[in-house]
Design goal:
The protein has 672 residues and is an all-alpha fold. Helices cover 76% and strands 0% of the residues. The protein has 30 helices and no strands. It is elongated and about 105 Å long.
Amino acid sequence: MKNSAEPKDLAQLLAALDPAADLAHRHLWLIYLLNWVRGKRDSVPAAVGRVQLFVEAVAARPDIQVRLRAWWATLVDQVDITTLLADFGFAPRTALVSEIAERLRTKLLPGSPETIDASELFMLALPSAFDAQWLAALDEATLNRLVMLLAQDNADERAGGATRWHRALLDAITYCAGQILSTGFAPELRLRMSESARDAQPFHALIRDVESLRVEVLHALRTPDRLNETAQRLRERLESCRAAAATVYTHFEDNGISVGLVFRLRQLRERILRVRVLLDCLLSAQPAVTAAQLMAQLVMVGQERRSLRALLASNSSLLAAKVAERSAETGEHYITRTSAEYRSMLRKAAGGGALMAFTTLIKFGLYALALSAFWGGFMAGINYAVSFVLIQLLHFTVATKQPAMTAPAMAAKLKELGTGDAIESFVDEITHLVRSQVAAVLGNVLVVFPAVLGLAALIALATGHPAISEKQAEHVFESLHLLGPSLFFAAFTGVLLFASSIIAGWTENWFVLHRMDSALHYNPRITGLLGAERAARWARFLRENLSGFAANISLGFMLGLVPAFAAFFGLGLDVRHVTLSTGQVAAASATLGLQVLQMPAFWWAMASLPFLGALNVSVSFYLAFSLALRAQNVSGVDRARIYAAIRARLRTAPLSFFVPERHRPVPTPAQG
């Protein structure tokens, strides 16, 4: 090519073909040719027609044929297609973080055609999903004519020996098998396989089976029966390797999930599938057609290779499932179904509200220290975290922490929705859940308000000054005004509540995955320091309470520090927790006295409290419920029937959403 300007039509493309050009311009010619083939990317038949037109134009010009074959020979000599066949679409290192960095580099930085890496050239030449469509649509006659135009006059290939394509496929199969073997022998996977899978040793003979296949393909006197037997043996070996690797997932179910290990397992499975595809191409009676289909598949692999979202979604789905599962186990404890459980929830919420009264006043005390934004937020986070942990240890409850835990428990029941009875049972659970939330919110709010009033009065008697100044009191009413940004802040607080549940599930999964409870129980240094019985108690205590500690501590620090960080970036974000906000209104009311009843600002603030609670609860529940639905792979649910059943329950028994019913008949199958 004389210059790098892109030719606009076929005549210019053929004129620009120069097998003696430098590496970059030879590859640019290929890119320009494929740009011309795909056109406007709006018609597959049109793209196929342009390929046929190219073949006919080259066939009619012997001089072009000579140049095209010389160009092709130079291309395949300098660019090894084996790397494309064996490694394209796979991470260069079996680590999730490095693969994320690699995909970001691919998305953000341009590629260069001056490369001998077939994978890089492939992504530049065939960058769109449309390429997969027209490649798959090419007919056998056109493909065979194209192969004849590109093929060199090779006596061995005419005699039936292995072609360059066969050798490339064999090399790619060998490279893939080596990667499969390396991953299968990695100790972090091997030790998590089932005992029977380890005893079967499926990975040990994999390379031997691949070498047997190579001998059968390259041997000039090979027979179809021996070749087919060797190929079938390799397929069976690959299936054994896949089955052995799949037993690791059973270990995850019982012992926690590692996203990094899930990533390696998915890479292993994809390698095995790639070997199967390459093997089918190797044995195909229509090599040109199968080669085009393989290229079409690799185009789609390239699309996936660019997607950061697909990588994170595929490798975090199991972790999401485990987090949701652990949250579901915890969430069951927050759903009340009987009058006794309802009263117990009210008592626990009342206890939580009483403790939150102290938290509210300590927060105002921290304001008096006039700390910097970060240290003020940090100390507020400690205040919240300590309060939440105390509430947990005393078996009290904070209403807004429940939805993120109860949502996965609800989503788990959606998998059972197959009959009318199941729908009715699910609506029962909805009523139980709403009722539990109402009880918890009421218990918190109805106790924290008088508790703060009482504590503020004691402080005023003891010191001679109100707990907070009049200016602070007025600021409280202003910040909680119904028509201000409080509702948005309450929704944002719901996001933080959901995030704390994710941190809790992840922490517990990490604890179980690394068998920390067993280490605490049996580690000689720990048992020597604490004694066997005390070590066992600590191990059991942490196993039962670690999730709660992680949720409470993370939530406390997020409530304290997120507003400080948001202020640093000028975002103006704040948090509105219904229980804390109620306590703040009570403290402000104690300062201003009975005259507060005549202040519109007081009533606007009081009016906002129910909405704050509703947004705290609903946002965190919605996010947790959505995650649980994806993690549980719940699909095909007739939501219209669920909504209709909920509306019917609201009409027939509206009080069931607020107070437990004493007697309710069990629905029969006919009623469902």
